[in-house]
Amino acid sequence: MKKVTVRGRGLCGAGTRRLMIGVGVVLVSLPAQAEDATMVLDTQRVTGLRLYDMASSEQSGGYSVDAATVGSKVPASLRDIPQSVSVVTHDAIEDQNFITLDQLAARTPGVRVLNNDSGRSSIFARGYEYDAYSIDGLSAPMSSLTGSVPSLTAIDRVEVMRGPSGLFNSTSELGGVINLVRKRPTDTFQGAISGSVGTLDDRSISVDISGPIDEQGRIRGRLVTRSTEQAQWVDDNDNTLNDFYGALDIDLDENTELSLGVIHNTKDISVNQGQPVDGDNNFTYGRRSAFYGADWNSFESDATDVIAELTHRFSSRGYGRLAARYSDRNADYEYAYSGSALSDTGDLSSVAGYAGFTDETSVSVDASYTQGFDAFGNQNEFVVGVDYKTSDSDTTAARTSNLTGSSASISELNSLSYVDILGNARDGVSGYSLSRTETTLEEQGLYGKVTLRPVAPLAVILGARVSQFSAETEDKLNGGSSDMQDTAVTPYGGLVYDLDADHSLYASYSRVFEPQTREGEDGDLIDPREGEQYEIGIKGSYLDGALNARISGFQLTDNHRAASSTDGSVSYSVDSGKMRITGAELELAGNITPQWDVIFGYTYMDSEVLEAGSSDALLMLMPNNMVNLWTQYRFEGNLLDGVSVGAGMTALSDFDSTQGTIQAPGYAVFDAMLGYQFTPKLSGQLNVYNLFDREYYVRAGSASVFNFVGRPASAVATLKYEF
Questions:
Q1: What is the pLDDT of residue 559?
Q2: Which stretch of DSSP H or E encloses residue 57?
Q3: Which of 123-132, 204-213, 407-416, 610-619 has the lowest mean pLDDT?
Q4: What is the residue range of the signal peptide feature (predicted)?
């Protein structure tokens, strides 16, 4: 008989192991062994959708999971998803002390972050920005302007798909999809309180309590709060986050569950826009703490997400899910910043100012049904569903390019008297401009996907989506509006072939489109962006799934990307033509031994303009080469029992500013960690950043702003007590 190698859980009856594999049940009979019985065991990999009740990474531990929900409607094996997917687990988040998504992304293989204030950065993959993020598969917009980059307080793991995912996220960016999977209430009571303090005035305190609420355990709850003062190595750049997360899971019956969650976040930031360069467009490598802003610079935001999910397991081996997410964000901001490069004397010839506020709401609803069926002597699956998304953003903004009326030194800028930028713009003061724009996006979609296995080692994945979308922008001050409506069909195809029990070859084709809300010279909206990707690769799973590996190559083609006009006298957008991005990735993540964890990634990427539009949108911000490494070892059973040591490296090759006028040298930065388990409930951890105090710039912007220096050598100590 054969041994079936799976990663499942649950037992039923003596001598029979019941393994829940997606929509199917595999029964492996294990007869009682007589003394003279001999069993010959072979190994084969069971394919198919993974466990509906996939264990959280908090429960499973380590740096590896063998399944993900991104790009799927129920958990699917990483080897059965024919695209590049990385999963950053609960342990990896804690060990590297990530607070916000942009901090995590900066150390995730294949992902590039254009740094700003923590929680206000831009996240890219394969040359394109993630302009949305999902929570449990439900999308909402994300942007640096509104500060809607989320914190990770409520999150168990982060799933990052690189490349288009047009089947379930048709109007997403070409860079891919980021899905945050919530921490869920636990079956048994658990709690933790932790606090940290750092050398850069950073500090944090959090409380996490979870468990059953009623005696039967049918109702389970979780409450998490955290208050954080982010690291500050630039003068006057305070950054405070406050998070609240509450969740309920309710068993309506043995097959039906209702899940509710609320996530609330506030940010209070003294805005830093980076440093200017000198008159020759060179970095100054001056004081890393230099703050080119006024002491009244401010950004305040308030964000709430409400999530509801109803799931049901049908007796037919089907699985149904109805889920919705409502997001409400508002942000107020006003700040002064350098308006020019530095003069020979080190002064600024001008000081610029920006102020405004944004109110944004979005709704995402998804209903899907997944069903397994037997054909070709193998298990197959299909999923069908409908979804609806809408977002409405109302932004008022005021600008001025000469806030002081004359040149200013950095000290004069720091002590600049408060200026009511928004009030002056509303009053029509000369040199100030005012705008108010309302943007509405709406989409309805019908999708379907089938996974067929005509022979046991081969999975053929075919899918399509029909979307109807509309986009509208309205000038609330001057009148006038632009709108667009259309219907699009988005195909998807993939192949996965198991070479053996440990390796799979894969290939995929995916498309995506995205309505654009920027207007051309004629006042009409730029045509929707269209993109497609071809990807091939090989995935490996080793040590019973504890270690995952991937080597992949990809080619992306992008059409109609809106870019700012080169005509400085008039503000409008242009079609940037057609671009092609090619690249390759290598990734290794998981546990080499039960005590040794590792995350490693290498990415190569190159871009080429195939058809130049009115403005060539070269992706110069992206380096050709990126390397990420983090590894940790926990000692057990010797003199160092309870000690953990970790080390990591982030390295980038040279990169330029968007216009190519500012060149930034590549760099490699090393981090370290030391942990100790004092008692079964009390643990301590010391994270050290930029171990060798390397001076470097993480981002190249323009002559006046967005040139950000990297974090200097610093440390954060954390204590955690679990009960």
A1: 77
A2: helix 57-60
A3: 610-619
A4: 1-34
Whether the CB-CB separation of 350 and 292 falls below 8 Å is answered with: no
| Those residues with Cβ within 8 angstroms of residue 232's Cβ, 6 or more apart along the chain or in another chain | 200, 201, 202, 238, 239
Give percent above pLDDT 90 in the chain: 70
Secondary structure string (H, E, C) spanning 645-706: EEEEEEEECCEECCCCCCEECCEEEEEEEEEEECCCCEEEEEEEECCCCCCCEEECCCCCCC
Q: State the sign of the Cα–Cα–Cα–Cα dihedral 592, 650, 719, 59.
A: negative
| Phi, psi dihedral angles at 433 (to 5 degrees) | -125, 150
Please state the rounded mean pLDDT for residues 156-182: 84
With a CB cutoff of 8 Å and minimum separation 6, the contacts of 428 are none
- CA distances to 79, 220, 323, 693 from 259, rounded to whole Å, are 28, 10, 9, 46
pLDDT tens-digit series, residues 47-106 = 444 456 788 999 999 999 888 988 788 888 899 999 999 999 999 999 999 999 999 999
Instruction: Report the predicted TM-score, pTM, of the whole model to 2 decimal places.
Output: 0.89
Which burial class, exposed, middle or buried, applies to 433 when counting CB atoms under 10 A from its CB (0-12, 13-18, 19+)? exposed
Integer CA distances (angstroms), 225 to 6, 59, 84, 206, 339, in order: 37, 20, 33, 6, 39
**Separation CA 661–CA 656 (nearest Å):** 7
| E strand map for 567-624 | 573-575, 577-593, 596-612
Are the CB atoms for 634 and 670 separated by under 8 Å?
Answer: no
Please give the structure tokens belonging to residue 423.
Answer: 């009030």
Longest Cα–Cα distance of the chain, Å, equals 97
C-alpha to C-alpha distance for 244 and 262, rounded to whole angstroms: 8
CB 623 within 8 A of CB 583: no
